[in-house]
Amino acid sequence: MESKLKINLFIVDDHQLVVDGLRSLLNNEEQYAIVGCSNRPKEVISMLQNLNVDVLLTDINMPEMTGVELTRNIKKNFPKIKVLALSMFGERQVIKEMIDAGISGYILKNTGKQELLAALAKVSNGQIFFGEEVTKELIKSFVNDNEGTRLTNREIEIVRLIENEYSNKKMADLLFISERTVETHRKNIFRKTGTQSIVGLLKYAYEHKII
Fold first, then answer.
1. What is the pLDDT of residue 177?
2. Domains located in the chain, CATH noted
3. Where does residue 176 fall: left (phi above 0), alpha (psi -120 to 50 degrees), or beta otherwise?
4. pLDDT tens digits, residue range 25-65?
5. What predicted TM-score, i.e. pTM, was given to this entire model?
């Protein structure tokens, strides 16, 4: 019977102990072959030129280059390589940044071997995998984001007036409210949308079909 092709893995982590631990966990798994490792994320792109890699496992918090930057570079230069992020932290902002960068999976380093193998199986098969703790954080983030960015009708009115470059005074006159109330609404709008400038706010408004 013809044997199945092995799935080639590459490990990136600035801590050699973590690399050694992952190698030890996966060495006896016949379906996987570790074809390369690195403690220097800046060297990874050049190393990948000469290797056939299916899945790259990467840390996120590294001194030379973050996992986010590395993932972006990998997806730009080697779009077929799947990236599985491993981190000590499940912070929602970091998770979102890694998702935007193009990862296929995200698990915490305190996970057990079975979850690691489940993640590799899914990711190598072209599917998405998030660890249990990471999924919980994403759900909380989704709920909080939806609650936090729900603009009131008055706030939407003000966003539309901002688009038309109305001053606070003119908005106050049009809406029959004080300038101070307009300023309060503006602060709430920027807070809820997570933007810090008029350009950022208008981009958000267009993307979410507010204007």
1. 93
2. 7-143 (3.40.50.2300), 149-207 (1.10.10.10)
3. left
4. 999 899 999 999 999 999 999 999 999 999 999 999 998 89
5. 0.67
